[in-house]
Amino acid sequence: MNLTHLDENNRPKMVDVSDKNETKRVAVASGKITMSKEAYEAIISNNIKKGPVLQTAVIASIMGTKKTHELIPMCHPLLLSGINCDIEENQAENSFKLFVTAKLNGQTGVEMEALTGVSIGLLTIYDMVKAIDKSMIISDIQLESKSGGKSGDFKR
Question: Where, in this chain's numbering, is substrate bound (predicted)?
Fold first, then answer.
């Protein structure tokens, strides 16, 4: 299997998608942050000096999704048509699971955008709560599903 980000001389390149058909593309990614009970309860009770953590993480996720092409060298700048973020609270394990859905009609997929959005959102939670708990663990960043494009659909 040849890597599409390398040319015939093994030099990096951005894939040319100009001949690909535009299709509706959707990607969903998720990730988790686990923390101490004290940190979890401070977030839930909105008792963090830096402000509302979960709302800020959602905004950061959206910003990260939109700026993926500035962070990942071979990603195309995309005209995203929608970004949605959901956060599941898990009190039993003092964790939050963040989901990012990215959508567009275009010639290339949005998996990297969804994954970047999740990463930035979770890092934002860490940044805002690190004064309480520096041992937080960010884990399980993964693609949940994708649809559209030549490679077809994927569902974890």
Answer: 74-76, 112-113
Q: Stretch 131-144: mean pLDDT, rounded?
A: 98
Domain of residue 41: give its range: 23-147
Per-residue burial over 7-45, b if 16 or more Cβ lie within 10 Å, else e, is eeeeeeeeeeeeeeeeeebbbbbbbbbbbeeebbebbee
The CATH number of the domain holding residue 143 is 3.30.70.640
| Number of domains forming the structure of the chain | 1
Catalytically annotated residues = 127
For residue 144, which amino acid is it? E
What's the pLDDT at 86?
97
Q: Is 1 annotated as a binding residue?
A: no
Which amino acid makes up residue 108?
Answer: T
The answer on whether 76 is annotated among ligand-binding residues is yes
Question: For the chain, what percent of residues have pLDDT higher than 70?
Answer: 98
Select the more confidently predicted residue: 54 or 48.
54
**Residue 75 is labelled as binding a ligand:** yes
What does the pLDDT look like over 94-111, one tens digit per residue?
999 999 999 999 888 899
